[in-house]
Write a structure and sequence with these properties.
By secondary structure, the protein is mainly alpha-helical. The protein contains 12 helices and 3 strands, in the order ααααααβαβααααβα. The chain has one domain: Formate dehydrogenase/DMSO reductase domain (Formate dehydrogenase/DMSO reductase fold, Up-down Bundle), CATH 1.20.1630. α1 packs antiparallel against α2, α5 packs antiparallel against α6 and α9 runs antiparallel to α10.
C-alpha cells in the first residue's frame, strides 16, 4: 500500500529542528503582537465610556493591527513550506475551528474600518461590540487549539478510518494521516481552560498596553482593569501549567524537553505575577514586559511538547503516522528557505522595533481625539 509518508523512521536532522524553532518564533511574534491587539479589541466597549474614549482605545492599535496579523500568515506559510504533512493534517482535520478564526478576523477588520464611517452613536456602538466579538473568537479558538496540541490530537491513517466506516480508502489508493477525533472533543475541560487562559492573558496584555499608550483617566482605568484581569490570568495559568505538564506527555517527547516545558510554564506564571505587581506600582512598561514574557514562555512550553510528534497522538497504534521527520519538506527546500529566512527575518524584526519604538512611541489622550470624526481609523 502506497503512503505519503514512506520515509524511514529516523531522528530529525538539524534543519528540521531549526525550522520547528523558526515556526515557534513566528507564533511567538504573532501571540505577542496580536495578543495585545486582541486584548484591546475585547476591551473597547468596556474601557471607553463615550465615543471619544472608545476611539482613543482603538487608536492605540490603529497603526499596528493589520501588520501584526501578517505574523499569522507567515507562521501558516512557514508550516506549509517546511512541514506540509503537518499543515495538511492540521488544516484538513480542524477546518471548522480555523474557519471560526478566519470569521473572527474578518469581523474584527471590518469593525475597525467601518466604525467611523458614520457619526451615529448606535452605528458605532454596534461596530464596537463586533470588534470585541471578532477579537474574542480567535483568542478563544487559538487557546483551545494549542491546548489540544499539548494534550495530543488523535490521528489515524485514512485506510484505518475507511475500514472503520466501511468506505474505500481513496480513489488513488493513497494512505494519509487524518484527524480521527470529533469537533466537540476539542472542547474538553483542559482545552477550555486553555482557551480561557489565552483570552484572559490577552485581556491583561491589552489592558497593560492601553495603560502604556494613554494618559489621564483612560490610563488609570486601564490599570484598574489590568489589576483584576491579571489575577484571573495568573490563576488560570497556574492550573493550566500544572495540569498540562503533569497529565500529558506526547509520544517521543524527550525528558529534557519535559523539564523545559515545566520551567517555561512556571516562568510564564511568575511573569504574570510580576506584571500584576508592576501594574500595582504604576510601572506600565514593566507590567507590559511581564505579560509579553508570559506570552513568550507559554508558547515555548507548547512547542516543547510538540517535539517530535508535532502535537499528534497515534490513535490506531500502527506506528506514528506523522512527526517532525515524516511531515518535513525535502532537504533542498529547507536549505533554500533557510537562506531566505537568514536575510528576511532580521529585516522584519528591525522594522517592527523601529515602528513601535521610534514612530508610534508617544502616549495618547482623549484630547487628541476629534469630537466628530467621519473617516475610518
Amino acid at each position: 500500500m502506497m503512503t505519503l509518508f514512506d520515509i524511514p523512521a529516523t531522528s530529525p536532522n538539524w534543519l528540521q529542528v531549526l525550522w520547528l524553532i523558526l515556526v515557534a518564533v513566528l507564533w511567538i511574534g504573532f501571540f505577542f503582537l496580536e495578543g495585545f491587539d486582541f486584548g484591546v479589541g475585547m476591551l473597547v466597549p468596556f474601557l471607553g465610556k463615550n465615543d471619544r474614549e472608545r476611539r482613543l482605545v482603538m487608536n492605540t492599535i490603529g497603526p499596528h493591527w493589520d501588520g501584526n496579523e501578517v505574523w499569522l500568515l507567515t507562521a501558516g506559510g512557514a508550516m506549509f513550506a517546511a512541514f506540509p504533512g503537518w499543515y495538511a493534517t492540521l488544516f484538513s482535520g480542524l477546518y471548522l475551528p480555523l474557519f471560526l478564526v478566519l470569521l473572527g478576523l474578518i469581523i474584527r477588520g471590518i469593525a475597525i474600518e467601518y466604525r467611523s464611517k458614520q457619526a451615529d452613536p448606535a452605528w458605532r456602538k454596534v461596530w464596537d461590540w463586533l470588534m470585541a466579538i471578532g477579537s474574542f473568537i480567535p483568542a478563544l479558538v487559538f487557546g483551545v487549539g494549542f491546548a489540544n496540541f499539548l494534550k495530543g490530537l488523535p490521528v489515524s491513517m485514512s485506510s484505518d478510518m475507511a475500514n472503520l466506516n466501511g468506505q474505500a480508502m481513496s480513489p488513488f489508493g493513497i494512505d494519509v494521516p487524518v484527524f480521527s477525533g470529533t469537533f466537540w472533543r476539542l472542547f474538553m475541560p483542559f482545552c477550555l481552560i486553555g482557551g480561557l487562559l489565552l483570552v484572559s492573558l490577552f485581556l491583561t496584555h491589552g489592558a497593560f498596553f492601553v495603560a502604556l499608550k494613554t494618559s489621564g483617566e483612560m490610563h488609570s482605568r486601564a490599570q484598574r482593569y489590568g489589576s483584576v484581569l491579571g489575577v484571573v490570568a495568573i490563576v488560570l495559568a497556574l492550573v493550566f501549567v500544572i495540569w498540562g505538564n503533569t497529565a500529558y506527555h506526547l509520544e517521543g517527547q524527550l525528558p529534557a524537553l519535559r523539564i523545559v516545558a515545566w520551567i517555561t510554564g512556571i516562568v510564564s506564571v511568575l511573569a504574570l505575577a510580576f506584571a500584576w505587581y508592576m501594574n500595582s506600582l504604576h510601572r506600565d512598561g514593566w507590567a507590559f514586559i511581564g505579560t509579553a514574557l508570559a506570552t513568550v514562555m507559554l508558547v515555548v512550553m507548547f512547542f516543547a511538547h510538540f517535539y517530535p510528534s508535532l502535537g499528534f497522538n497515534n490513535a490506531s497504534n500502527t506506528g506514528v503516522p506523522i512527526d517532525l521527520t515524516t511531515a518535513s519538506s525535502s532537504q533542498n527546500t529547507l536549505v533554500i528557505m533557510s537562506w531566505v529566512a537568514l536575510f528576511m527575518v532580521p529585516i522584519v524584526l528591525a522594522y517592527t522595533v523601529w515602528s513601535y519604538f521610534f514612530v508610534f512611541r508617544r502616549r495618547l489622550s482623549v484630547n487628541n481625539m476629534p469630537v466628530d470624526v467621519d473617516v475610518a481609523v
